[in-house]
Amino acid sequence: AVRVTVLPSLRCLFDDPVQIRVEGLQPRQPVTLRASLVDESGELFQSHSRYLAGGSGELDLSRSPALGGSYSGVEPMGLLWSLQSKAPYKRLAKKNVLTPFCVDLEVYEGHGDLSRLLGKCTNERWFLGEGVKRISVREGRLKATLFLPP
């Protein structure tokens, strides 16, 4: 079975670097990896890149070069930084920091049409760390939010 993994954990802070790996492929198998998320306004953001599995049937985006797609070359976080909307001028925005962006990571067979899904996982990318207190501040014309670490 093909497994897509995110290390060190499927749940992390939004700006934490992660290692994306795929295991269980055939040696030198051509695959396409795709990332997608829907933002709070309902806009779909996606990225993709084509790869060849290593001799042991494994992909590690920190070592395996992308052969094209949304980016090329060795880009460990390429699937995340290259997310784009198909609609022009749309920006990925976050208003509610109490909920994560859930990024679906999928691996498909081949470099052509994406009809045969081999494996997937979801990476939760949070904006508020464990134990951080969020306090609204209102003083005169000042409106702010204070984030206090544990």
Automatic annotation (TrEMBL):
Residues 15-139 form the Acyl-CoA thioester hydrolase/bile acid-CoA amino acid N-acetyltransferase domain. GO terms for biological process: acyl-CoA metabolic process; fatty acid metabolic process. GO terms for molecular function: fatty acyl-CoA hydrolase activity. InterPro entries: Thio_Ohase/aa_AcTrfase, Thio_Ohase/BAAT_N. Belongs to the C/M/P thioester hydrolase family. This is ACOT5 thioesterase. It comes from Ceyx cyanopectus. The gene is Acot5_1.
